Amino acid sequence: MKRILSLLLLLQACAWAEPTTDRMCQIARQEWDFFGKQTIGKDGKISHPGHRETDEGYWQRVGVYWRNGVFENFTGKDTDEAWSAAFMSYVMREAGLGGRFRYSDWHAHYINQAIDGRKSHDPDCAFYGYRLSERAPQVGDLVCYRRADGITFDERPEVYPSHTDLVVAVRPGEIDVIGGNVQDSVTLKTLATDSKGLLIDTNQQWFAVLGNRLVNPQLTSR
Q1: What is the architecture, at CATH level 2, of domain 19-212?
Q2: Whole-prediction pTM value?
């Protein structure tokens, strides 16, 4: 009886465990590894190809991102349905962010949550949004780019084409990020940064860094 009670208490403690940035990055790296470690260098070109979304054994995994991330029943065979936000939602949900992240098949929903949450000093947001000039990306942050003209940090409709990648490593002059549905796979990209660590990659139209408040709950909203 004591052994059963101890096990129940352990399971309860695990259920209440706080999400961590390490867990978030671990999940992203596991999915990258599963897809064959596709890699894109700072020149924007694939240096190591991986498996594709429609490959047998891999389209099923994309279906897991859809179902578990945003509760949709698409798969990697639904090539008209972009799954990059479903992938990121899956990572955040599996990492245990709970109600602190707006899970969606639109990146715009949680980008806006982070930017607006910082403005309103929302203590429940897992991320706060910053301009590229305001924050050097750190491990656990999300970096965001637009897929349409007219989108800026300050001018954003409710939904718009965009993309986010999770920062998993930081080095002088560069960062590594992992995202889903990048060249039809889960892909690691290396992006250029300047001497202050600010993002200066020119291969995409970057416009925001979402600062991870799991690392620093006191992350300023100013």
Answers
A1: Alpha-Beta Complex (3.90)
A2: 0.90
Contact 84, 180 (CB under 8 A): yes
Q: Which two tokens stand for residue 79?
A: 């090539």
**Listed residue (188, 145, 192) closest to 171, CA to CA:** 192
DSSP 70-134: IS----TT-TTS--HHHHHHHHHHHHT-GGGS---S-HHHHHHHHHHHHHTT-TT-SEEEE-TTT
Pick the range with the lowest mean pLDDT from 7-21, 91-105, 112-126: 7-21
Can you tell me the distance from the alpha carbon of 101 to that of 124, in angstroms, rounded to the nearest whole number?
A: 9
Confidence of residue 150 (pLDDT cuts 50, 70, 90): very high
49-68 burial, b for 16+ CB within 10 Å, e for fewer? ebbbbebeebbebbbebbee
Decide if 27 contacts 94 (C-beta within 8 A): yes
Sheet holding 185-192, edge to edge: 46-48, 38-40, 185-192, 174-182, 162-171, 142-146, 205-212, 127-130
The Cα 60–Cα 74 span in angstroms is 10
21, 139 in Cβ contact below 8 A? yes
